[in-house]
Model the fold of this input.
Amino acid sequence: MTLMAFLLVVILFLAFFVFFSGINPQEMTIFFLPDNSITYPVTVVVIGCILIGLFIGYGFHLYGAFSYGMRSWLRNRSEKKSKEIDNVYREGVGRLLSGDIKRAHSLLQKAIDKNPTKVEGYIALASVNSQEGDQQGAITLLRKAKSIDSKSIEVLFKLALTYEDLGEDDAACKEYEEILEREKDNRKAIRAKRDIHMKHQRWEKALELQKRLLKAGLSGNRIQAEKEKMLSIRYEVAKQKLAQNEEDQAISALKQIIKENPEFVPAHVTLGDAYIKTDNQNDAGKTWQNGYNKLGRSVFLSRLENHYLQHEDPKSLLEFYANALAARNNDLVLRFFYAKLYLRLEMADEAMEHIYIVEHSAPDFPQIHLLLAEAHRRRNRIDEAIEEYQKALGVDNQLSLGYVCDACGKHSAEWKSRCEKCGTWGSYSIAFREMVENSEVVAPVAPQAGA
Done:
């Protein structure tokens, strides 16, 4: 407001006061106490009230303006501080991602010092500690973050994973359980807890979680994979029942698994084992015979061979092989085991017939040379036996011993500068080097007189 405008307002106010006083000459008496009063003209009282009201209103205006200014100043200061902390935090995370662990540690610690309630800072610094190998330090930081925000799913997951890295699986399970108390259908937590139970062979608990996972709303290929995993867990539960001498429950569960998935080989094998344990030898043999006829897996032949020879019943086994070969004449695995059986029965000539068929029909592999060597040895053909043993062992006339990659274990007949499998240079060494390089030389002990 300019000076002239202010003077004009004052003049108008005085003119109004004079005019109002002229038409209102009366006086007003105001009593504060029964014997205490003051008397003023009505004009003075009215104008006084107006002025007092104006001053009070202006006072409130000043207070509001001052309060607003203070709040704005504090807010701007807080935002500026928060922005500075965020910049330090982001730089620390960037250093962490780039591998500059030492600098990341310094920056993230600085961010936490400036704002001790920033949960993200504790999580990031815990990751730094984990990479530095300080898992206990990471646990301490994550526990602090949990005390600040006990409902943070991210903190609980990070804490559980760190416990797993430390091998404290029970503590990790508790964290996953807390997550599931907040989000009962959190699939990631259910899988993680299930995997811990599977790791420790707590199969019944794993099965409960797997059922819970399937009810959590999976879809597509994922649900099929989880159904297959549940079948495997059910198999392990049945196997555990068998080990606990609960044979009837185990047999019932294994039969149900086979009914749902006839191609699940372990169930067929273990069902035969369960029949053996209940002294039901006939059903065991039938189970393994049917298993091989349907699935063609060599484990059934091994089980059948040991089973019938242990019970001194080679005749039944030979009949099975004869019938099976009549139906599967091109099954070289069956012929191989047939030859192996003949060798165990000291029937070298019959074994040779099937060995030669396998040798000429299939690519070269050590086991066939081992059978040929045994057949020659039992027929007293020592030179031929030695030659086949050499082939089985991969030994040539130059006594080449072969090389192995120290990084990935890939074998090679010749030394190579770089491993074709893992790409490591200079990693090939003699196959038995690790077995002998750290051993101490021990002088042979001379035999005592008369020994």
Notes: The chain has 20 helices and five strands. The chain has a mean pLDDT of 86. The chain has five domains: 14-115, 184-279, 281-329, 336-399, 400-430. The CA atoms of residues 254 and 447 lie 59 Å apart.
